[in-house]
TrEMBL record:
The keyword Transport applies. It is found in: Membrane. This is Major facilitator superfamily (MFS) profile domain-containing protein. One of its GO terms (molecular function) is transmembrane transporter activity.
Length: 473
């Protein structure tokens, strides 16, 4: 994998930009190239340094360079961030799966203590997101994000050795603190590289990672429970944390060499590549990105009504998607065995990935997010209502309830990347304001996760009428 990424970084795109090798596939439309040339010739929009670095580039070379830059970003930024985000969510979801594997009984925890352990992660997550993104706006993502990942991988591994509820509370709080920089940091980083017509799809691809992690977490938990439960005197749920933490540490080490910083200071890009990356963003946003102090950026975001509108929207969506924190327990109410329940959690999330990416692609092409958000949330509402109405224990009705979970998961999760992408497009600059806005919107979703951390108590099982009624509302 490293060798393949290295070859993409050091040969293909750079040769394409310098005109030494043709790029396969269609290049950008000539209108885009003409627009870039017009921006390049405008003295009030482009600095003299940027103009000098791209001197001699004609329309065809600009078109090939654009395609090369996008291919490079998709390989080194999106693919790496997706892998890191999948690890992020897998480590977080280990607690939910561990409950099915016997964590509560082994640690002698009641439902309230388990709910507190889940809630503490989100409290730390809320507190750290805005300060983290403010720091990242002037920091180095290629160092900051992998370092945070390396540390949370170590904490996740440590969770395997807790003996008391108090120890679990401590490691979950620390895990939330260390995971907080990642989601908002990645969303901010991709908004610093991609144009507005590219952000929706890339955000959806990035946010499909949690759904894939949720899908395969159940399968991995099933494999661990079935094969190494009890090995070396450790219960299966402890091995789940060890495996998740070890994989996270390995991926973090790779990320140090793969993630970029920003278009103007990424070290493994040539000057022409950095200049072209900046030029395409100037053409998209109408002006060069300018810097303000962190405090000014924070004030600008706090005073923007648009930021709070998106935050409110995302808060409500997060309440609707809170089912994912309890999804294995909900599937368990269908009265299948423990092992069957674990693998049955996967298909709804795989379906959700397809729906999320498809709707984001459609929203980008039609340049309209609102109707796509309405459509996907309506799909989720239908799913919740079907689950509530089909309460018979007949085998046919049980499978109908399971089918409704596909609509619940897919509909609710498909809307999330569109709201976050909409935020990125609406608040393009300055960088400090955009970083704060993304963090505020994502924090509102985390607050909703805290509010719903005990939304599915055991006493409401198996119908969960109150829980799903709130999700539907």
């Amino acid at each position: 994998m490293l060798q393949k990424l290295y070859s993409v970084v050091t040969t293909g795109p750079r040769r394409a930009i310098r005109g030494r090798r043709m790029v396969r596939g269609p290049v950008e439309k000539s209108a885009s190239s003409e627009g870039l040339l017009a921006v390049l010739d405008a003295p009030d929009r482009v600095s003299e340094q940027l103009r000098n670095e791209l001197a001699g580039f004609d329309q065809e070379e600009l078109a090939k360079g654009i395609r090369a830059i996008k291919r490079l970003l998709d390989c080194c930024l999106i693919a790496m961030a997706w892998t890191m985000f999948a690890c992020n969510y897998f480590d977080r979801s280990c607690l939910t799966l561990s409950e099915l594997m016997g964590l509560r009984s082994d640690l002698s925890m009641n439902s309230n203590e388990y709910g507190l352990a889940m809630m503490l992660l989100f409290i730390a997550y809320v507190l750290a997101q805005v300060p983290s993104n403010l720091y990242l706006a002037k920091g180095r993502p290629s160092v900051y994000l992998p370092t945070a990942m390396l540390l949370w991988g170590c904490v996740c591994t440590t969770t395997a050795f807790v003996k008391t509820p108090g120890a679990l509370y401590a490691v979950r709080s620390l895990l939330g603190l260390l995971e907080a920089p990642f989601c908002v940091g990645c969303l901010f980083l991709i908004s610093s590289w991609y144009t507005r017509t590219e952000l929706g799809l890339r955000s959806a691809i990035l946010l499909s990672a949690p759904m894939m992690a949720n899908a395969f977490a159940g399968v991995i938990a099933f494999g661990i429970h079935d094969s190494i439960d009890g090995a070396c005197g450790l219960e299966g749920w402890r091995w789940l944390f060890i495996v998740g933490g070890a994989v996270t540490i390995i991926i973090a080490c790779i990320a140090f060499f793969t993630l970029p910083d920003y278009p103007h200071n990424t070290r493994w890009l040539y000057e022409e590549e950095r200049a072209l990356a900046q030029l395409r963003l100037i053409a998209d946003r109408g002006a060069s990105e300018y810097d303000v102090s962190r405090i000014v950026g924070l004030k600008m975001a706090l005073n923007s009504w648009q930021v709070w509108m998106f935050a409110g929207m995302y808060f409500l969506l997060a309440i609707g998607t809170s089912l994912h924190n309890f999804f294995p327990s909900v599937v368990q109410t269908l009265d299948f065995s423990r092992t069957t329940t674990l693998w049955m959690t996967a298909p709804p999330y795989l379906f959700a990935v397809v729906v999320a990416i498809s709707t984001a692609l459609s929203a980008d092409r039609h340049r309209n997010a609102s109707f796509h958000i309405i459509g996907t949330t309506a799909l989720a509402i239908v799913g919740y209502l079907l689950f509530l109405l089909e309460q018979s224990t007949d085998r046919g009705d049980v499978w109908a309830r399971y089918a409704s979970t596909f609509l619940m998961i897919a509909g609710a999760h498909a809307a999330n990347p569109m709201v976050l992408g909409w935020t990125q497009k609406t608040v393009p600059q300055p960088r400090e304001m955009r970083a704060t806005a993304i963090a505020i919107v994502n924090t509102s979703g985390t607050i909703a996760q805290i509010a719903t951390s005990e939304l599915y108590p055991k006493r409401w099982a198996p119908r969960y009428i109150q829980s799903m009624s709130l999700n539907t509302a």
